[in-house]
Structure of Alginate lyase domain-containing protein:
Amino acid sequence: MWAAGRRRTAALLLGPLLTALALLVSSCGAPGQHSRTMGPALPPDAAFTHPGVLVDRAQLDAVRENVTAGRQPWLTAYLAMRDSPYGSYRYRAEPYATVVCPAGDLRGRGCAEERADALAAYTQALLFTVTGKRQHAVKARQIMDAWSGTLRRHTGANAALQAGWTGSVWARAAEIVRHTRGGGWSAERVRDFEEMLRTAHLPEVSAADPDFTGAWDLVATDAVIAVAVFLDDRRAFDQALKRFRERVPAYFYLEEDGPAPRTVPGSGVDTPRRVTSYWFGQATYRDGVTQETCRSFRQVGASLAATAHIAETAWHQGVDLYGETKDRLTAALALHSRHELRGRAPAWLCGGRVEGGLGPHLEVALNHLEGRLGASLPDARKLAVRARPAGTDGLFTAWETLTHAGSPGG
């Protein structure tokens, strides 16, 4: 359960929680400026690249070209997106001033609505870039303006998780509409949206806690870096890099780490018993095991996606986080894809019982590792192809077969 993701160490000791399509295409802006002199940080005098939250101009151009040419798997992925409820011109936002997200499976107030509306805004933004039809830009703006004119805060035990899921998706949608020719978003409305992200989302996701479970912390960091790029906020961007570098090595285990996993600085996970509890009962550590493998593969899938989202956004800004974590991502993808395909696990892993469900979360990492670096991940590729076209998880991952399957190497 996602709600259990914020348990602190003491609580964790108690247990785990389609035919080619003729499209109207218009010019979607000048190519983005990309630096591929990858370094560990954004140079002090460097400007942010826009659009540059998860997708950049080259990727958006490739999406439009592939769909217009009727190529697969992009055409099928596009049609699935277009025909989803999020792609309708009739879509109507349902904003709330206060979004209340309690722990557990309780519905809360405005939580499902904000998640759906953020995904709809992103969907409409992508449809605009593919078709050039301004009705889609108008719809994306309507959804975003409705929320920026209403939302004031997130509350409840899952407030940070909600702000993480939605903050990253809002920023993706806003980045495309703002930085695509013909988007038509007024400066005043942009400022309103910036203020919403700055006051209702960023404070919730910026409060790092070393005792969070990894998926929770990585989702929050995904939102921090996405919002930072949209706001041109260097301080938040640097914060996201630091948090990534602390969390990822402590989440994805490699045998080179030693006999026990690394921990996040300041964490209370400081004894073998606490480590085992924090890792949901796993006490044997081999390449690719993650902190939440024995919790569920759903959490691992979300963590893989969030990690790849952060690294992809940083990549578009000239920072190669992938280079620091490619071995961990490769090992985790290989191990979890293999056992998801087989439907079983060896006795050393979670006592031989694992809960599958990696979900539509593999495309971004797979594109970088195989497409850009030339790695071989046959099980992960088989699983990704089987799941295509990857749709949305209803939270923060959407249409990544369309945007990242075979996307430009950059």
The first helix runs from residue 9 to 12. The chain is about 50% helix and 0% strand. The chain has a mean pLDDT of 91. Residues 371 and 406 are 6 Å apart (CA to CA).
